[in-house]
Amino acid sequence: MAKILIAGINFAPENIGTGKYTGEMAAWLAGEGHKVRVVTAPPYYPAWKVVAGYRRFWWSREIIDGVEVFRCPIWVPAKPSGLTRIIHLASFGVSSLPILLASVSFRPDVIINIAPTLVSAPGVLAAAKLCRSRTWLHVQDFELDAALDMGIVEVGAAKKAALAIERLLLRQFDRVSTISDKMLERILAKGVAKGASEYFPNWADIDGIHPLVKVSSYRAELGIPLDDVVALYSGNMGLKQGLEQLGELAHATADLTKLHFVFGGQGPGRAILESMCSGLKNVHFLDLQPVSRLNDWLGLADIHLLPQRADVADLVMPSKLTGMLASGRPILATAHPGTGVADALRCSGIAVPPGNTEALAYSLRSLVSSAETRKQLGQAARAQAESTLARGAILGRFQQKMLSLLAQDATSETSTDTDPA
User: Fold this and answer.
1) What's the pLDDT tens digit per position in 294-336?
2) What are phi and psi for residue 292, nearest 5 degrees?
3) 280-295: per-residue pLDDT in tens?
4) What is the C-alpha separation between 167 and 163, in angstroms, rounded?
5) Which ranges of the chain have pLDDT less than 70?
6) In CATH, what number is assigned to the domain containing residue 56?
7) What is the largest CA-CA distance in the chain?
């Protein structure tokens, strides 16, 4: 078994986005008998507020699901913007460095850096150099490209330098993986050798999340009649989601008296969406729901909504998609043809171009009016999840790739030891 060090700003108990997948990966690897250590920040996402019990200005240690977790203090802005996000990420880069370097005594066989964020990559690479560890970078999100393309940060003439530094960092890792075919193409375009790249998709808990056989308890709690249709958005309410499209959609379909929108989540974009939907009686807002109710929550949907901005297509693959598919419900997304999201929904949903409210409303009306279409797409979604998103199968393949990488070192050392002088 291997000693594995994981560095990433998001981790359990965060239950959406990168933190969810990194937490589940670490717990699964520990369950397989590996010794796993994680260097991370206190949980703060997606509310952009450190969770009570973790608000301290020093380093701490805890054990979660058999994983040794070191928490590094960070600064979290109340209202994230371009500059404050940079400072926020930099604070983790600085505070994680001492723990990464001290982890040389842990003598990891492999160090995995989760992106976002790359600010921990220099510390990871330095620690790996000191203890001769293998390195693996897993890209959940092209944070730099997204920030530049969306205008979150303005770097002007420094853009070329920033991209060059990113390219240099990527090429320092022994392996670089990411979560979709389109994102894998981007990794190769950034100069990573094909032999050093890996496809490592996100997964779904297809046992814990499955099509409901009864009515979701949320219907009664929200006062939604049994024969009305629910269009659900669940997850982070940030800048990358294009949430304004949901507000426009709610207004464009306001005449559908049997259609209810349920928007569940937190983030800097929620207040704007709430303002857009002010006065609409068929729109309901909730906070993120507990994991213990996740299946009932996702099963509330007759239709899942997956908005996405055009300028982040193939920079991210929405992590919420896996749960949507596993729930066995159809998905209505905004994505251009040929993008990762559109390709993923070829048989299990409908994708319309971002920003085209008329096309989005037309597709939603079609789904609302046809229970049979919703049933067929939902069944296809569940079948897709079962065949491609099983957590054990995906993490098992990752483990095999990681152990193969470590075996190369063992073979090399044995060859060197037996070489005649």
Assistant:
1) 999 999 999 999 998 877 766 778 889 999 999 999 999 999 9
2) -65, -20
3) 999 999 998 998 999 9
4) 6
5) 149-157, 239-240, 313-314, 409-421
6) 3.40.50.2000
7) 84
Q: 197-199 and 110-115: which strand pairing?
A: unpaired
Q: Give the C-alpha separation, 421 to 415, whole Å.
A: 12
In a domain, 209, yes or no: no
Dihedral, CA of residue 388, residue 394, residue 398 and residue 403, to nearest 10? -120
C-alpha count within 13 angstroms, C-beta hemisphere, residue 67: 28
Query: Sheet of 134-139: strands edge to edge?
Result: 60-64, 67-71, 35-40, 3-7, 110-115, 134-139, 175-178, 197-199
Q: What are phi and psi of 264, to 5 degrees?
A: -120, 125
Task: Measure the CA–CA gap between 418 and 421, rounded to whole angstroms.
Answer: 9
CA neighbor of 15 nearest in space, from 5, 7, 23, 6: 23
Residues 6+ apart with CB under 8 A from 267: 46, 47, 48, 236, 237, 238
Residue among 346, 351, 352 nearest 380 (CA): 346
Which tokens is 82 given?
């371009």
307 token code pair: 């908005």
User: In this structure, what token pair is assigned to residue 173?
Assistant: 């890792």
Residue 351, judged by CB atoms within 10 A of its CB (0-12, 13-18, 19+), counts as: buried
Same domain, yes or no: 93 and 62: yes
For residue 5, the SS3 value is strand
Structure tokens at 220: 């009664």
Global pTM value: 0.89
Contact 264/289 with Cβ under 8 angstroms?
yes
Q: CA 285 → CA 290, 392, 399, distances in Å?
A: 15, 34, 40
Q: Same domain, yes or no, for 7 and 142?
A: yes
| 228 and 192 together in one domain | no
* Residue range(s) defining the domain that contains residue 376: 217-388
